[in-house]
Design a protein that fits this description.
Number of strands: 13
Bound molecules: pyridoxal-5'-phosphate
Order of helices and strands: EHHEHEHHEHEHEHHEEHHHEEHEEEH
Shape: globular
Helix content: 40-55%
Number of domains: 2
Strand order of the largest sheet: 2-8-7-6-5-3-4
CATH class of the largest domain: Alpha Beta
CATH topology of the largest domain: Aspartate Aminotransferase, domain 2
Strand content: 15-25%
Radius of gyration: 20 Å
Length: 344
């Protein structure tokens, strides 16, 4: 059986040989006692890359975001998020259940909350209103098709939030994709937020883990919340070791994923029955609308799966393709041939 070409997500990436070697050799200790030297090294590296004082290794991006929101807010606070943001859309209402916060969603411009949009969402003090204490941003923006939020927009929106007394959290699951697309260091993007979560287990290829970064005081409080959620891991250096290799060796190659996404988009756009705007492809995702009468995205995904091409439906008539280190240019060319065939 041929190996499937898996374009569902960059979360399907598998660890490199160098990661596996580092994991096998990792020096470990009990990280709840903060005695795991490998975890500490990863946290320090992550903090340095984000230009923050400290980092906290967490098992997933979802937990990193949950811990961040819990740490920034009190029960009954209002949190402003983009309407299609991952925290709001895909994190099982953790914001409500775990933080007891009221999400206030703002439909953005390709994932971006502009200062004007934030301004119109902010309410003044009033006996009827909850305190609004946190703004969450996302870059790159998943449901906006890997869209890159311009740095200027992030700065201006974040400045306004700060002037109004809100803290700012960045869901930077794919911050390195954004950094490469913008041609700036990740720290420049991270500088627009008080706390930043980024993932090691997406395009960077580590098997497990994300890091939450922020001030030392914030991370100390976040550590307690992580423990409450059951995220205090013991000899976690075994997995953190792969994260270190990811940060050292896997960031620059993301450019290749972006080029492959563009190649995929340009060629999908040529296939009758599919609509793609290559101009919207900024990083490693391609949103593709299925416009063939009687063919849903779900059905097309099912037919492609039979031919060993895996892709997720992202709406009734929308497919989302994600490029990553485990699909080569040749794999994408083969996938395109199969898609053409299935669309006839
Ligand atoms: C933007 C964004 N934030 C957070 C997450 C959550 O990460 P995890 O799957 O590690 O919980 C994802 C996962 O796809 C994501 O795309």
């Amino acid at each position: 059986m041929e190996r499937p070409i898996d374009l569902r997500s960059d979360t399907v990436t598998t660890p490199t040989e160098a990661m596996r070697r580092a994991m096998a050799a990792a020096e470990v200790g009990d990280d709840v006692y903060q005695e795991d030297p490998t975890v500490r090294r990863l946290e320090a590296m992550a903090a340095e890359k984000m230009g923050k004082e400290a980092g906290l290794f967490v098992p997933s991006g979802t937990m990193g975001n949950a811990v961040a929101v819990m740490t920034h807010t009190r029960r009954g606070d209002e949190v402003i998020l983009e309407a299609e943001s991952h925290i709001y859309y895909y994190e099982v209402a953790g914001i409500a259940v775990l933080s007891g916060a009221l999400p206030r969603t703002v439909p953005g411009v390709r994932g971006a909350i502009t200062p004007e949009l934030l301004e119109s969402a902010l309410r003044g003090p009033n006996i009827h209103y909850p305190p609004t204490t946190l703004l969450c941003m996302e870059n790159t923006h998943n449901r906006a098709g890997g869209a890159v939020i311009p740095l200027e927009t992030m700065r201006a929106t974040s400045d306004l939030a700060h002037r109004r007394g809100l803290a700012v959290h960045l869901d930077g699951a794919r911050i390195f994709n954004a950094a490469i697309a913008l041609g700036v260091p990740a720290a420049a993007i991270a500088a627009t937020a008080d706390s930043v979560m980024f993932c090691l287990s997406k395009g960077l290829g580590a098997p497990v883990g994300s890091v939450l970064t922020g001030t030392r005081a914030f991370i100390e409080r976040a550590r307690k919340n992580r423990k409450m959620l059951g995220g205090g891991m013991r000899q976690a250096g075994v997995i953190a070791a792969a994260g270190i290799v990811a940060l050292e060796t896997m960031v620059d190659r993301l450019q290749e994923d972006h080029e492959n996404a563009r190649y995929l988009a340009e060629n999908l756009a040529e296939i009758p029955g599919l609509v793609v705007d290559p101009a919207t492809v900024q990083t490693n995702m391609v949103m593709c609308d299925v416009v063939k009468p009687g063919l849903s995205a779900e059905e097309l995904s099912r037919r492609l799966r039979e031919r060993q091409v895996l892709v997720n439906a992202n709406g009734p008539s929308r497919l989302r393709f994600v490029t990553h280190k485990d699909v080569s240019r040749a794999d994408i060319a083969r996938a395109l041939e199969i898609i053409k065939d299935v669309m006839v």
